[in-house]
Amino acid sequence: MRGSTDPTGHPVPPDPPPEPPPGRIVTWLGRFGPVAVAYAVFQALVGLLPDGLFGDTARYSLAAVSGIGTGTCAWLAAALLRARSAGQADDEGDGSDENGLDGVPAPRGPRRAAAAPAAAPASGRPGPLPGLSAASYATLADRLTVFDDPLRGRLTGWPHDLDEQPMPIRPTATGTAYGLHISLELGASDGRLRTSELVETLWRLRLPEGGWAARSQGAVGRPEVTALVLGALARAGADPVRLAAEAERCTARFSREQEPAGLEMTHVVTTVLRGLLRAAPESPALPILRDALVDGAVTDPARGHRRCWGPRLTPLRGRAVAPSSVHTAQAVVALDRAARLLGEDANARATREEGVRWLLSCPGPAHDGCEDLESSHDTVRRPHPVDASRHEVLSVRHFAAAWVMRALLTPGAVQTAADEGQEAAWQELLSGAAASVWRRQDGGIWSWDGGDLAYPMWMTYQGLSALRAHAVWMYQPGS
């Protein structure tokens, strides 16, 4: 700097101008000099090549080809340096690359020991999840409906779908249970969604003979809906004595004699198991359901004969059960939770770990859109409770990407991937599933493509809870 002195009082000569780095010189040449370089090489060769080299035509042709080739190489070298410079500029920018696919943070790999926390992004800006959560809550509060039922009293909750018309519409047990789960997931800070009112509504929607059923199932309680409601009530802190009594009625009906169709379906058994683990952790039915799930695993020759699950736990009329990523994920989640409460024997542990290995062996080339993440649906067919000549048919849709995320984030799956050196496969599949889940939402609400009931409550709960679980896994104090 002009006029500056050193510590002894002597004037300091001005700093010489910095020399441009070699990369910038080559970049400049790449932008403006390829033609000049080519011409210079051409002229040099014309002067150097002997006149007798097959005549002037050959001499000029050789010089021209050499000049063009040299100029092209100079252009390519400069283009490469420009690309590398742009990449470094992005890395030093706002940290958007840390968000991975579609703004979803790239997950940490499973680790045996704690590592030093990563440095905070230079921008210090929050990620996209807070805004998404706020939008979810706003829509949930806006669509909350209050309905005065002449038989059951005042009902506060939601129908099955957020876009059902006309409003207000009578809340359902399924919609309100998932809405209660979402409000608890978000930890709402204001009084627009009152947990006590939602809990009271679910008890009022209880059927006269006990249990709960979907809107299309009539007046008989069904185990999967009952377990869903009991799980939401338990999470909200409902009376444990009342919950235990209702859980006992649910398990008493969930038998081969009264519920043969449900006991054959992976979705039904895993739903009941998860609900009872929350609502009735001392229920004697839990080990029975856990063993039924373990025994219902099948082997998949296409993936190294690993064990996995399909839609059914028993084959239908001798037909083989097709492996399914969503049902394998549901089984892994249920068995992992059961293991933490009940423990597990060697067979249960081996089967659960095989399910994790099966998920990690997904052959898809791009895990944000591979076949394992394609959503699907089941059909649960039961005899009608009143008319034996008819059947009660329930169509169940599955958000596969969210289920795969939840399965991969279980403690058992993380440990299995770490023990077997599969951290890279685990991280790639989890990141792809998170990107797939993120793409299915708009303003914090998830949608099912096409048809009626395109904004189901259950899908928003599953998408939101999966992303929040992913964010919890990503969190590193001090970063």
Question: How would you describe this structure to a colleague?
Answer:
- This protein is mostly helical and 479 residues long.
- It is built from 17 helices and 8 strands.
- The chain has helices spanning 22-32, 34-48, 55-91, 129-142, 173-186, 195-204, 223-235, 240-253, 260-263, 266-279, 285-295, 325-342, 346-360, 400-408, 411-419, 423-439, 457-474, and strands at residues 145-149, 153-157, 298-300, 306-308, 376-383, 391-398, 441-442, 445-446.
- The strands form 4 sheets. Strands 1-2 form a two-stranded antiparallel ribbon. A two-stranded antiparallel sheet has the order 3-4. Strands 5-6 form a two-stranded antiparallel ribbon.
- A hairpin with a 3-residue loop joins strand 1 (145-149) and strand 2 (153-157).
- Helix 10 (266-279) runs parallel beside helix 12 (325-342), helix 11 (285-295) runs antiparallel to helix 12 and helix 14 packs antiparallel against helix 16.
- The two termini are 38 Å apart.
- 37% of the residues are buried.
Global mean pLDDT: 81
Strand order of the largest sheet: 1-2
Tell me the fraction of residues in β-strands, as a range: 5-15%
Helical percent range?
A: 40-55%
Task: Supply Rg.
Answer: 32 Å
Secondary-structure element string: HHHHEEHHHHHHHEEHHEEHHHEEH
The chain-level structural class is mainly alpha
- List low-confidence stretches: 1-30, 83-122
Oligomeric description of these chains: single chain
User: DSSP helix count?
Assistant: 17
Write the layout of secondary structure elements.
Layout: H1 22-32, H2 34-48, H3 55-91, H4 129-142, E1 145-149, E2 153-157, H5 173-186, H6 195-204, H7 223-235, H8 240-253, H9 260-263, H10 266-279, H11 285-295, E3 298-300, E4 306-308, H12 325-342, H13 346-360, E5 376-383, E6 391-398, H14 400-408, H15 411-419, H16 423-439, E7 441-442, E8 445-446, H17 457-474
Antiparallel strand pairs: 1-2, 3-4, 5-6, 7-8
